[in-house]
Amino acid sequence: MSHQPFETWLLEDRRxxxxxxxxxxxxxxxxxxxxxRLEAKWQEVRLEMRAAPMVAPRPGFSRRFQAGMAERRVRExxxxxxxxxxxxxxxxxxxFAGFMIYAFFFSTTAEWVQSVVTLLSTTVGAAETTxxxxxxxxxxxxxxxxxxxxxxxxxxxxxxxxxxVFAIWRTSLVGVINK
Length: 179
Ligand SMILES: [Zn+2]
Hints:
Elements: H1 6-11, H2 19-31, H3 33-51, H4 61-106, H5 109-122, H6 126-139, H7 142-178
Helix pairs in contact: 2-3, 4-7, 5-7
The structure holds zinc ion (ZN).
The site of zinc ion (ZN) has 7 residues, from helix 3.
């Protein structure tokens, strides 16, 4: 059985067909289950298409949308903070590695031990730090002095970077809570 031109007519606006065409189509539909199925499907699709613009967003949609935006912004800020942290961290690591290589070739084990001991003593407290730094100034040879200062500066730098990243993270978190 040939389904043309009835298939084409089915998908067209019925009003554009002539009276005779409409009758022919009706007769074909009575005999042809394929075209009846096609017509039913097409009706369904048209109904859905007409209904679609009427569907309003679910309640709370804009609130959820804004929350999603804020979340994305925080994620982006956190990623940014990580990028900065990694950049600074790797620079600090490179400086530290350079220092390690330098110290390995140009210092003795005794100087190393002395430096590490001094460094550990500097972490006890601020007063202790000042005191040991002053004693370092007075007791150590110029090179060992450099060694100590470099270790201290390196560790302090890493600590400051961590502190800074934490501050950024906390600020963005507070910003979201206040929303
Ligand atoms: Zn047919």
